[in-house]
Specification:
The chain is of the alpha/beta class and 296 residues long. The protein contains 9 helices and 8 strands. It is 47% helix and 9% strand. Pfam families: Zn_peptidase.
């Protein structure tokens, strides 16, 4: 992808910090069954990839205390950054691009877009939803409207799951931004309420709809993303990279790899075909209204 420098984005680099606490500290919150469900069925590797969603961790007290940065621009938290020069440019550039696309989309609908922050960390970090760990994969915290990512996830996506490329990595971030859109729209609250009334299988289907809509929103962003010269940011091969990543993180593919069998009623993010279709729908339409995958 051809993206700008991202200097106007709310990007926070915590990769030089230590911390994070335990991986889970008790009860749920929004779709709180998600993490224990993945842990019990897929282990750490499954969790790493299926964490490409949003997590509601239990509050561990003052979890949002570290989120003190204000205003736009990259912020370096205390400690020496562990980001490569390439990643230091890439992460804020993707966030800035999503900000531009969604600010325009919300403006056209007569509303105002509130931009999220993207927090890069190493190993673990405190969040408004509790303690975050790299093993969770990238996640969005509705409580503080922040996206959290340990950039080593991208190496796992490339090496273990055969989904390399800058657009594959950008899709990961844009998916989390999709959950931020859902938070602003009230979809996450509706999903939480609907899941509270449903049994496990029906609750999983609600979660699948939420995740597929976020995939679609990622495609909408990519379809509308602009390069610094105003032309389309996508380059030849980018779409294929994104679809390959969506295929690699489908529930059926991961279940087949992890346990040799597929259990559709346990899906929480959608099959490979569903995830590819959702991303493709957003890419081809460029219109958020086409992303009617949510079942709430």
């Amino acid at each position: 992808m051809r993206l700008g420098d991202g200097n106007d984005s709310d990007f926070i680099d915590r990769t030089g910090q230590s911390g994070g606490g335990s991986i889970l500290g008790g009860g749920g919150g929004m779709l709180g069954l998600l993490i224990p469900l993945i842990l019990s069925r897929f282990g750490i590797v499954g969790l790493l990839i299926l964490g490409l969603g949003y997590c509601a961790l239990s509050s561990l007290g003052g979890g949002g205390g570290l989120l003190t940065g204000g205003g736009a621009g990259t912020q370096q938290a205390s400690g020496q950054s562990r980001l490569s020069p390439e990643m230091t440019r890439f992460l804020p550039a993707v966030l800035s691009s999503t900000d531009a696309v969604w600010t325009d989309a919300f403006r056209q609908s007569g509303t105002t877009y509130r931009e999220p922050k993207l927090v890069a960390y190493t190993g673990g970090t405190q969040t408004g939803c509790g303690a975050g760990q790299a093993a969770m994969g990238p996640f969005y915290c509705p409580s503080d409207s922040n996206i959290y990512i340990d950039p080593t996830f991208f190496s796992e996506l490339t090496r273990k799951f055969g989904a390399p490329g800058d657009f594959a990595a950008a899709y990961v971030i844009a998916h989390e931004v999709g959950h931020h859109i859902q938070n602003l729209e009230g979809t996450l609250d509706k999903a939480q309420a609907a899941q509270a009334r449903a049994g496990e299988a029906a609750g999983n289907q609600i979660q699948v709809g939420v995740e597929l809509q976020a995939d679609c929103y990622a495609g909408v962003w990519a379809a509308n993303a602009k390069a610094p010269d105003g032309t389309r940011a996508l380059e030849p091969g980018d779409v294929e990279e994104g679809l390959r990543a969506a295929e690699a993180i489908g529930d059926d593919t991961l279940q087949r790899q992890a346990q040799g069998a597929v259990v559709p009623e346990s899906f929480t993010h959608g099959s490979s075909a569903q995830r590819m279709n959702a991303l493709r729908t957003g890419l081809e339409s460029g219109n958020p209204a086409s992303c009617n995958f949510s079942k709430v």
